[in-house]
Fold this sequence. Notes:
It is found in: Nucleus. By secondary structure, this protein is mostly helical. The chain has helices at residues 3-9, 23-47, 54-74, 84-91, 97-135.
Amino acid sequence: MDQSSHLSQSNTSLIGSTTRPDPTTLELESTLLTLFQSLTEMQVAASSVQPTKEGLAAGAASRTLDSLFQLSEMKPRIEAKVPMEVLDLIDQDKNPHQFTRNKIEEAVGSNQYSHGKLQAISSYHSLLEKSLLENFPELLQDEQPTAGLANDHTEMKVEEPMRNKQFVG
């Protein structure tokens, strides 16, 4: 199966999202696919020059110009931001999905680092609380031990045991 027939049979969105894209995005995808199709046709027509197919290159060139004009008209309605690294990868004939994979790996690493910090804080909090209970039971005689970090590790429950206590001087 060649690229052009594969593109025409593909109904998947370039966005990769499960939500329905807006009409401008669908129009952009359609125009980009048409542009790709016409560029492929121009390449085929240029590589197999035959007297009977002389109008094919002109037709493909016309469709290419039409697609480029449509993209130019869509520009004010589109707010897509493509990182320069992705464009550089495309210019170097490399797969831009590598950029996405690298960003995901960076995010996973950062997430693991943050998770480790939260676990260390939770462990320290538990040790501190245990030491305070063992060494200064009078400070916490009316207070219940805190639960430490919440189960979802998103917020820490911090209680001030000295709050509302009367000091005897």
